[in-house]
Amino acid sequence: MTLNRSYIVGNWKMNGALADGAVLDAIEAGIAEQSGVDVALCPPATLIAAFAQKAKAIGIGAQDCHAAPSGAHTGCLSAPMLKEAGARFAIVGHSERRAGQGESNTDVAAKAQALFNAGLGAILCVGETLAERDAGNAIAFVTQQLAESLPISAAPDWLTVAYEPVWAIGTGRVPQDADIAAMHAALRVTLVERVGEGGQSIRILYGGSVNPANAAQILVLTDVGGALVGGASLKAETFLPIVAAAAR
Ligand code: PEP
């Protein structure tokens, strides 16, 4: 991982079927001409093995993992299992899991550490609610969330951070450029405090309603190392222009 390369990651959430391998093919064909950008997709777990077998240039990741390597955890998937299926990394701490499954910062740190232990990368998500932003607490809240969610082994070669304001996910609303830049700068400080100088080269992605119309403007902001993309990653027509905007 290097800050010289941008990183565009699609999160398909609970969408997609085997037939959508055609979308993967179209994205791969489209990124062949782009340079300076790493591209990854996180399909639902049911598609990881099939997509990992097909994918050549696109890294396939999972959307979550359990903190334990195995055990009595019905319905869950461990980091070693995801690795065996072909995942290279997983998202942890997405706000939809923090809110929907009650995941705490401690849970997220344990999941990220489990990924490291299995030899996988992690994309660790943080972000404030609208209430926290309106109260003027966004930076304090998100930097504390990151500090408490970072695993012991945090390091630039396997960890990516994603700043995703909860109120911007799937809503079409995006923070002001200055607010994104201020948050990324604050997260950088937190990373350096926790990891040392290595924290300078951990990529910090922005996520929340990124689309072909706004990607270029967001991706040039200082300390924005790429984007985590939900809805616009489901179709090659909307994902590829975002990748093109990140190409260097
Ligand atoms: C997400 O869920 O990570 C996300 C950024 O979604 P969207 O792009 O649809 O806002």
Number of domains: 1
For the largest beta sheet, what order do the strands appear in spatially?
Answer: 1-2-3-4-5-6-7-8
Major beta sheet summary: 8 strands, parallel, barrel
Q: Quickly name the level 1 CATH class.
A: Alpha Beta
Mean pLDDT: 96
What's the N-to-C terminus distance? Answer: 15 Å
Present as ligands are: phosphoenolpyruvate
Helical segment tally? Answer: 10
Element pattern in H and E: EHEHEHEHHEHHEHEHEH
Helix content: 40-55%
Strand content: 15-25%
Keywords:
248 residues, alpha/beta, TIM Barrel, 8-stranded parallel beta barrel, 8 strands, binds phosphoenolpyruvate
Summarize the structure in words:
This protein has helices spanning 21-31, 45-54, 79-85, 95-100, 105-118, 130-134, 138-149, 177-195, 215-219, 236-246; strands spanning 6-11, 37-42, 59-62, 89-92, 121-126, 159-163, 203-207, 226-229. It has a single domain (7-227), classed as Aldolase class I (TIM Barrel, Alpha-Beta Barrel), CATH 3.20.20. Helix 1 (21-31) packs parallel to helix 10 (236-246), helix 5 packs across helix 7 and helix 7 (138-149) runs parallel beside helix 8. Helix content is 40%, strand content 16%. It is of the alpha/beta class and 248 residues long. Phosphoenolpyruvate is lined by residues 11, 164, 169-170, 207-210, 228-232. The site of phosphoenolpyruvate (PEP) has 13 residues, from strand 8.
